[in-house]
Write a structure and sequence with these properties.
Layout: H1 10-23, H2 36-43, H3 47-59, E1 63-66, E2 72-75, H4 81-92, H5 98-119, H6 122-140, H7 146-164, H8 167-179, H9 181-187, H10 192-210, H11 214-238
Antiparallel strand pairs: 1-2
Helix pairs in contact: 1-3, 4-8, 5-7, 5-10, 5-11, 6-7, 6-10, 7-8, 7-10, 9-11, 10-11
């Protein structure tokens, strides 16, 4: 399965060989890698170099290193979790600006809405309508229920991502919506009129999904996200901050 590592780039070659074996399915989830001694002999490398390579693979989420008598390096199941976790850290530590998020959401969420229209089942549409009813209840309570309304709004966006049926879109958007409240809290004016406009957007989006209008849903979601982003950027600029740096 493995060969002697290239001596001019031995560390990276060890990482690449094990990673490739996992990604190609030659090593399955739950499989235990050969012992350190065996891997040293196969790759013709030092113990220190091998351990560093294994640490890198663990940081990538490809393996888990366990200690003890029954320990060793075990292959993890490949999921979208690793991507989401990395993005989560970028957002939490403000390495992703408001403009970065805005650009991504405007480009992706319209596509997701179009896919949701094509793949929505009767029960999916009913779930979207239930969320609309919940949003209306919060809207009628006024701005005191701002946070509740925004939470339902986020749930509706994530429902579209789930209905679209693409785990990459869903995983990445889930990470964004788990963190986007940081930007809403800072830069979105808490005005009741914004909630009313937002509710109208959601009604039109759900109507387009129900009628099977993929292009219309794409455009509606894109415009909805764009308007929210512009409101936040305006507040950001009023505060004297740069939207590029977040």
């Amino acid at each position: 399965m493995f060969r002697e590592a290239k001596q001019n780039r031995i560390f990276q070659d060890v990482v690449d060989q094990i990673q490739e074996a996992i990604l190609q399915g030659r090593l399955k989830a739950g499989n235990k890698l050969p012992s350190e001694r065996e891997l040293q002999e196969i790759f013709q490398t030092s113990r220190g170099t091998l351990r560093e390579a294994l640490r890198v693979l663990e940081q990538k989420g490809l393996i888990t290193i366990k200690t003890g008598v029954s320990g060793g390096a075990f292959v993890n199941a490949l999921t979208t979790h690793q991507v989401s976790e990395s993005l989560d850290l970028l957002i939490r530590y403000e390495r992703v600006s408001l403009r970065d998020l805005a650009e991504f959401r405007e480009g992706v969420e319209g596509i997701v809405a179009g896919l949701a229209v094509e793949r929505a089942k009767k029960e999916d549409i009913q779930y979207l309508k239930n969320l609309l009813a919940e949003a209306k209840t919060n809207l009628d309570e006024g701005s005191s229920h701002w946070d509740d309304f925004i939470q339902v709004d986020n749930q509706l966006h994530m429902a579209l991502a789930h209905i679209a049926g693409n785990p990459i879109y869903e995983s990445v958007l889930q990470t964004i919506y788990d963190n986007i409240h940081r930007y809403f809290d800072q830069f979105l004016p808490r005005e009741e009129e914004i909630l009313r406009e937002n509710y109208q957007d959601l009604c039109e989006i759900v109507k387009a999904v129900e009628k099977g209008q993929a292009a219309q849903a794409h455009l509606l979601v894109q415009n909805h996200v764009y308007r929210f982003n512009r409101l936040m950027e305006e507040r950001l600029q009023q505060n004297g901050d740069s939207p590029v740096n977040g």
